[in-house]
Amino acid sequence: MYIVFLGAPGAGKGTQAATVAGKLKLAHIATGDMFREAQKQETELAKQARVYMEKGVLVPDDITIKMVLERISAPDCEQGVIFDGFPRTLEQAKALDEALVKQDKMIDNVVYIKVSEAELLERLSGRWICRQCQTPYHMVNSPPRTKGRCDRCGGELYQRPDDTPETVKERLRVYFAETAPLIDYHNRAGKLLEVDGEGGVDEVRERILESLEKGSVK
Ligand code: AMP
Fold first, then answer.
1. I need a surface site. Which of 37, 80, 111, 192 has the fewest CB within 10 A?
2. What are the tens digits of pLDDT across the range 31-47?
3. Structural domain containing residue 57
4. Closest residue to atom 10 of ligand 1, CA basis
5. Domain at 108, CATH number
6. pLDDT grade for 217, boundaries at 50, 70 and 90
7. pTM for this predicted structure
């Protein structure tokens, strides 16, 4: 199965995609995580992406599409993938559709996690991320057991530099201008599953799994 998780920054895509991918035994491709990983290693890709990420705008399509197409040719993607934070533009969506068709595959479903703008701002302002495994926490809604340490791997927690109030505002603007139109694109293709993203993490995960079970074309 090839599933896309779509939603604004702070909608919970990362948290939900990681657990759902584990449950369904699918690879998890999160483009934001891939760019952040590249930053740690100071690769050429990192240099190209950094300037855009710092401003809260999208990394150009050619760079992003190339990175994802390379990634999906890896053996662990054979049984299926959950895409998290990709595609984010119409051009990326079309490139992914074309690449999958060439392999006789297609996107089965798009899970659109819907959260109000007020809630998104609240979530992003309290967000802390594990430097090692990228697990997100919220200082009020889902704090770690030990302050400053990841429950899963013990890694150090940090606030993403693009979670500052100005950059968050810009990322939400970019989402509504460039990514939200994809809701309509996937809906017209009959693949959209809209899920209420407000409430507890477990509650939202159950809604997603139920919706995938009902809406799955397989
Ligand atoms: P995220 O972790 O998904 O919020 O992504 C963090 C940043 O990485 C974004 O603000 C963009 O600068 C960049 N990024 C992640 N995914 C994409 C994408 N599909 N297309 C372009 N830029 C992306």
1. 37
2. 999 999 898 888 888 99
3. 2-115+174-215
4. 56
5. 3.40.50.300
6. very low
7. 0.91
